[in-house]
Amino acid sequence: MNEGLSGWQKCKLGELTEIVTKGTTPSTLGEGFTEYGVNFIKSEAVGYDGRIDRSTFVFISPEMHEKLKRSQLKENDILFSMAGVFLGKNAMVLDDMLPANTNQALAIIRINQKKALPKFIHYFFRNPCTIEFVNNISGQSAQPNINFQEIKSIEINLPEIPEQKAIAAVLSSLDDKIDLLHRQNKTLESMAETLFRHWFIEEAQDDWGEYSVSDFADHFKENVVPAKSKSEYYHHYSLPAFDDGKRPNLELGSEILSNKYKVVEHSILVSKLNPKVPRIWPVSSLPSKNSICSTEFQVLKPKNIKLYGYLLFLLRSNDAVDALSMAASGTSGSHQRVRPEDIFNIKTILPSLASAEQYSDMVIPGIAKTSSNLSQIETLEKIRDTLLPKLMSGEVRVEV
Hints:
It is a single chain. By secondary structure, the chain is of the alpha+beta class. The chain folds into 2 domains: about 1-160, DNA methylase specificity domains (Adenine-n6-DNA-methyltransferase TaqI, Chain A, domain 2), CATH 3.90.220.20; about 185-365, Adenine-n6-DNA-methyltransferase TaqI, Chain A, domain 2, CATH 3.90.220. The chain has helices at about 60-65, 120-125, 130-135, 150, 160-200, 215, 240-245, 310-315, 320-325, 340-345, 355-395; strands at about 1-5, 10, 15-20, 40, 60, 80, 90, 100, 105-110, 155-160, 210, 215-220, 225, 235, 250, 260, 265-270, 280-285, 290-295, 295-300, 345-350. The strands form 6 sheets. A 5-stranded mixed β-sheet has the order 13-16-19-14-15. Strands 3-9-6-7 form a 4-stranded antiparallel β-sheet. The chain has a 4-stranded antiparallel β-sheet with strand order 12-20-17-18. Helix 5 runs antiparallel to helix 11 and helix 8 packs across helix 11. It is globular, with a radius of gyration of 24 Å. It starts with a strand and ends in a 7-residue tail after the last helix.
């Protein structure tokens, strides 16, 4: 090791590791996945936010897990995407995910904890400078990838263990708060979905009245051409923005080349694309008057604001997702679309409109809390993303 910036030691990642390896797909050994068993973590489980999405886990048998000894995971292993469109996504394996295994698209990096703190290395990988470096290594090949030697050759400025712990603690405190807010939102949404299912599906009666989404909402279709107002800023509700945390992007009119729809207060955006993966985006309040959305979204404006909560969770219900999936057409599974009329033709039954209003009254506070949490998450992420490179470079120091 050599002395680097801020009196830290400059070294290569390989000097800090016990193991850098990868897994194997069970099919290469003639076996498939099972309905339950040992967790098997694929590359798509590792998010850009440094978390592992447990809902994507598949399973292998205990016998297959034993065959795949090389890739049996341990607590504090770092999973690092080494193949695919985006290299260098990483997340840490937690104890309650074990036993677990993984495939060849993820490198397993096991840190020698006498030399470095795994969580510090995890944040080092999340530094934008490191991500840019890793993605530049792969060049311009059609299938970007990075090999073990290239991973081990990554240079790092390493403080002493106590300072590593202090830096990781600062960043972890922000991530923990963000994670808590995400989990709170999932709980609020799950409670509302459970209540909807109980009231309107499990308790459904044959004599209830039938309605369509068109009975509850109007199709709002006001076109906007942002390119005509090049110097104005727009809050753009796009599919990528939905997938990246359900927050609209602030963009200049000159950067938005295609026509959009105007987004109005107390509306619900419903994506036409790939209805099996529903994108239902409630907009109870606007960040600015210049709020627009992709024409992949349809803007639904409730005819009666008292039915807003009911309409939202009707559109999110399994019955609605199934109905749109059946109506979808397209050339491939990844580019299936529904027509706007398919959305408005979704059927539901109710004992009375009063029951839908009562349901809305119960879930509206949760919808408001979820929106507030998303704003807090955005603020905390900005703080973390500003601090992370400064802490990793030694520009900002933490008292030990």
